[in-house]
Amino acid sequence: MGIEEKLPAGFLLSTVEGLAGYMRKASMWPVTFGLACCAIEMMAVGTPDYDIARFGMERFSATPRQADLMIVAGRVSQKMAPVVRQVYDQMPNPKWVISMGVCASSGGMFNNYAIVQGVDHIIPVDIYLPGCPPRPQMLLNAIIELHKQVQSTPLGVNRVAAARAAEEAALQATPTHQMKGLLA
Amino acid sequence: MNPYVPILFMLGLGFAFAALSVGASLVVGPKRYNRAKLEAYECGIQPSPHPAGGGRVPIKYYLTAMLFIIFDIESVFLYPFAVAFNRLGLFALVEMVLFILTVFVAYAYVWRRGGLEWD
């Protein structure tokens, strides 16, 4: 920009939002929340073949107190639901959630009374990742998408304005039960 | 200047950095209260209730500690004897045997009175 050209060599300018976003995304520690089969794919992402360590995320912390990201990998049963909520509550802010696989996103193939039909009934989700199970590359793609979101999160006054704009957009959008799909 | 003064300075600097970090985060950081954040982490379930003050501690721990002190002090006396006894002659041997017999009386008493039973 204009200022950087006039400064002597060796200076780099950035914004507080950019710096905070970079620091938040650069070593986001996931909490170990592998529930079912998707956990195997999550473990595979930890292997050197797909390597989650290049994002600084190889340290899956068992305690939610030191975790930033909750990858809900697997189906959430009705018995497990309060556990999911308690672990999510015990994570300090800022925290993000990826619901990995179709069972965490919407109940998946288990359309019954025993499985919670989507973990977003319990906790707010940032990225939904379909797949049964999603391949490790798909999980990495979801993580990269989340990193893009985290890098560009507005802070302070911008955050309030973005929240207000999101609320406006949600109020203007068509409600789910009136969505007609491609045939209408 | 004493060559070790910079170490003391580094110590002070480290302490000041820690204090500044904690203080700054207390002042500047957001406070988002959530009851679960203050509860003990018990893998997601509600933590089991503990009695206030730690509850009643069983007396057997005190008894074990007392017995340890007595016999540990005895063994401390035995260490230098064990190292030097071949230079000390008969007098030291008789002396040490009398000492061990004295403590052995205490040991026999504890044994017969059930002090070595854990439950």
UniProtKB/TrEMBL annotation, chain A:
<dbReference type="GO" id="GO:0008137">
    <property type="term" value="F:NADH dehydrogenase (ubiquinone) activity"/>
</dbReference>
<keyword id="KW-0874">Quinone</keyword>
<protein>
    <recommendedName>
        <fullName>NADH-quinone oxidoreductase subunit B</fullName>
        <ecNumber>7.1.1.-</ecNumber>
    </recommendedName>
</protein>
<dbReference type="GO" id="GO:0015990">
    <property type="term" value="P:electron transport coupled proton transport"/>
</dbReference>
<dbReference type="GO" id="GO:0048038">
    <property type="term" value="F:quinone binding"/>
</dbReference>
<dbReference type="InterPro" id="IPR006137">
    <property type="entry name" value="NADH_UbQ_OxRdtase-like_20kDa"/>
</dbReference>
<keyword id="KW-0520">NAD</keyword>
<dbReference type="GO" id="GO:0051539">
    <property type="term" value="F:4 iron, 4 sulfur cluster binding"/>
</dbReference>
<feature type="domain" description="NADH:ubiquinone oxidoreductase-like 20kDa subunit">
    <location>
        <begin position="37"/>
        <end position="146"/>
    </location>
</feature>
<keyword id="KW-0472">Membrane</keyword>
<feature type="binding site">
    <location>
        <position position="37"/>
    </location>
    <ligand>
        <name>[4Fe-4S] cluster</name>
    </ligand>
</feature>
<keyword id="KW-0479">Metal-binding</keyword>
<comment type="subunit">
    <text>NDH-1 is composed of 14 different subunits. Subunits NuoB, C, D, E, F, and G constitute the peripheral sector of the complex.</text>
</comment>
<dbReference type="InterPro" id="IPR006138">
    <property type="entry name" value="NADH_UQ_OxRdtase_20Kd_su"/>
</dbReference>
<keyword id="KW-1003">Cell membrane</keyword>
<keyword id="KW-0560">Oxidoreductase</keyword>
<keyword id="KW-0408">Iron</keyword>
<comment type="similarity">
    <text>Belongs to the complex I 20 kDa subunit family.</text>
</comment>
<comment type="function">
    <text>NDH-1 shuttles electrons from NADH, via FMN and iron-sulfur (Fe-S) centers, to quinones in the respiratory chain. The immediate electron acceptor for the enzyme in this species is believed to be a menaquinone. Couples the redox reaction to proton translocation (for every two electrons transferred, four hydrogen ions are translocated across the cytoplasmic membrane), and thus conserves the redox energy in a proton gradient.</text>
</comment>
<dbReference type="GO" id="GO:0005886">
    <property type="term" value="C:plasma membrane"/>
</dbReference>
<dbReference type="GO" id="GO:0050136">
    <property type="term" value="F:NADH dehydrogenase (quinone) (non-electrogenic) activity"/>
</dbReference>
<keyword id="KW-0004">4Fe-4S</keyword>
UniProtKB/TrEMBL annotation, chain B:
<feature type="transmembrane region" description="Helical">
    <location>
        <begin position="88"/>
        <end position="110"/>
    </location>
</feature>
<comment type="similarity">
    <text>Belongs to the complex I subunit 3 family.</text>
</comment>
<dbReference type="InterPro" id="IPR038430">
    <property type="entry name" value="NDAH_ubi_oxred_su3_sf"/>
</dbReference>
<dbReference type="InterPro" id="IPR023043">
    <property type="entry name" value="NAD(P)H_OxRDtase_bac/plastid"/>
</dbReference>
<feature type="transmembrane region" description="Helical">
    <location>
        <begin position="61"/>
        <end position="82"/>
    </location>
</feature>
<keyword id="KW-0812">Transmembrane</keyword>
<keyword id="KW-0472">Membrane</keyword>
<keyword id="KW-0874">Quinone</keyword>
<protein>
    <recommendedName>
        <fullName>NADH-quinone oxidoreductase subunit A</fullName>
        <ecNumber>7.1.1.-</ecNumber>
    </recommendedName>
</protein>
<comment type="subunit">
    <text>NDH-1 is composed of 14 different subunits. Subunits NuoA, H, J, K, L, M, N constitute the membrane sector of the complex.</text>
</comment>
<dbReference type="Pfam" id="PF00507">
    <property type="entry name" value="Oxidored_q4"/>
</dbReference>
<keyword id="KW-0520">NAD</keyword>
<dbReference type="GO" id="GO:0008137">
    <property type="term" value="F:NADH dehydrogenase (ubiquinone) activity"/>
</dbReference>
<dbReference type="GO" id="GO:0005886">
    <property type="term" value="C:plasma membrane"/>
</dbReference>
<keyword id="KW-1278">Translocase</keyword>
<keyword id="KW-0813">Transport</keyword>
<comment type="function">
    <text>NDH-1 shuttles electrons from NADH, via FMN and iron-sulfur (Fe-S) centers, to quinones in the respiratory chain. The immediate electron acceptor for the enzyme in this species is believed to be a menaquinone. Couples the redox reaction to proton translocation (for every two electrons transferred, four hydrogen ions are translocated across the cytoplasmic membrane), and thus conserves the redox energy in a proton gradient.</text>
</comment>
<dbReference type="GO" id="GO:0048038">
    <property type="term" value="F:quinone binding"/>
</dbReference>
<keyword id="KW-1133">Transmembrane helix</keyword>
<feature type="transmembrane region" description="Helical">
    <location>
        <begin position="6"/>
        <end position="28"/>
    </location>
</feature>
<dbReference type="GO" id="GO:0030964">
    <property type="term" value="C:NADH dehydrogenase complex"/>
</dbReference>
<dbReference type="InterPro" id="IPR000440">
    <property type="entry name" value="NADH_UbQ/plastoQ_OxRdtase_su3"/>
</dbReference>
